[in-house]
Design brief:
Order of helices and strands: HHEEEHEHEHEHHEHEH
Number of domains: 1
CATH topology: Rossmann fold
Shape: globular
CATH class: Alpha Beta
Number of strands: 8
Largest sheet: 8 strands, mixed
Length: 305
């Protein structure tokens, strides 16, 4: 059962997003609102920030005190491929890096509609290859992301495998967007709750902005449609109440059928992006600890010869 803190958060989101769902703000307004909302998200204590440029992209090293050297978390932020930034996810990445005890690299990948597919994927590939040139090997890297960033992390694995390049040690998807084809029946079901109306309506609009001329079911746009063989271990976290929940479970089933090791951690009754509220929600702190447990186990195993 969700915590009291989550009940309060959900009531707040219902009050805030109900009017927005009825009036449908423009993309510029939503981007600005998200940036403003992120101002109060403070980094965890003893986590340090370093600006860096990665292949022409703005990026940040987020380094917890005492981080294990030689290991790195490559983090791709969420936001439906149209929202989000280094600012909006900095505190979450800091908390996750601190839990995992490693440095994290996060990038300002290009967003739609100004830069549709494959711009974001190309940027993720550039960042991964940049890390390899910095002296990290594939087994030293875990790729992670939330929502669209989680889907992008999974697409990155598929692209690397198809190109015959070194794969990371693992990937973590926090409520990943695995299927940009949102079925009408699923849309009607999730829209029964006002707090999820805006989320459902907007992601249905954002999908074609990102895909542009590419079919929504293309494997590198919607990883649920990809060949999922030969991928490294995956950790997937999702709530059964999320708009993306059904598609995430379908992705996990397909990955397991393809022989890819997947750990699915299913949470009950939580809103999408609950991880961002880690200071307030005990469920989010539990989720981040479980990510740390997963990465510890992955890195404890010898790298494949």
């Amino acid at each position: 059962m969700p915590s009291t803190q989550h009940v309060l958060l959900k009531q707040f989101l219902s009050a805030a997003t109900g009017p927005l769902a009825r009036h449908r703000p423009g993309l510029a307004a939503m981007r600005l609102a998200l940036e403003v909302a992120s101002v109060g998200q403070l980094m965890p204590w003893n986590v340090f920030l370093e600006d860096v440029t990665v292949e022409g992209m703005a990026a940040e090293w987020i380094r917890p005190a005492g981080a294990t050297p030689g290991r790195v978390l490559l983090y791709l932020h969420g936001g439906g491929y149209v929202l989000g930034s280094l600012n909006t996810h900095r505190a979450l990445v800091g908390a996750l890096a601190q839990q995992c005890g490693v440095a994290a690299l996060t990038i300002a990948y290009r967003k739609a509609p100004e830069y549709p597919f494959p711009a974001a994927l190309d940027d993720a590939l550039l960042a991964y290859r940049w890390l390899l040139r910095q002296g990290y090997s594939g087994p030293d890297i875990v790729v992670a992301g939330d929502s669209a960033g989680g889907g992008l992390a999974l697409a990155l694995l598929v692209a690397l495998r198809d190109a015959g390049e070194a794969l990371p040690a693992a990937a973590v998807g926090l409520s990943p967007w695995t299927n940009l084809v949102l079925p009408a029946a699923q849309l009607r079901r999730v829209c029964q709750e006002e707090s999820r109306v805006l989320e459902a309506l907007e992601i249905r609009n954002w999908a074609p902005l990102y895909a542009a001329e590419t079919p929504l079911s293309a494997p590198l746009v919607s990883p649920v449609w990809a060949d999922l063989q030969g991928l490294p271990p995956l950790l997937i976290q999702v709530s059964d109440a999320e708009v993306l929940g059904d598609d995430v479970v379908e992705f996990v089933q397909k990955a397991r059928q393809a022989g890819t090791p997947v750990t699915l951690q299913l949470f009950e009754g939580l809103v999408h992006w609950w991880h961002l509220f880690w200071r307030f929600l005990p469920e989010a702190r539990v989720a981040l600890r479980r990510v740390a447990e997963f990465t510890t186990q992955v890195w404890a195993k010898p790298a494949p010869a």
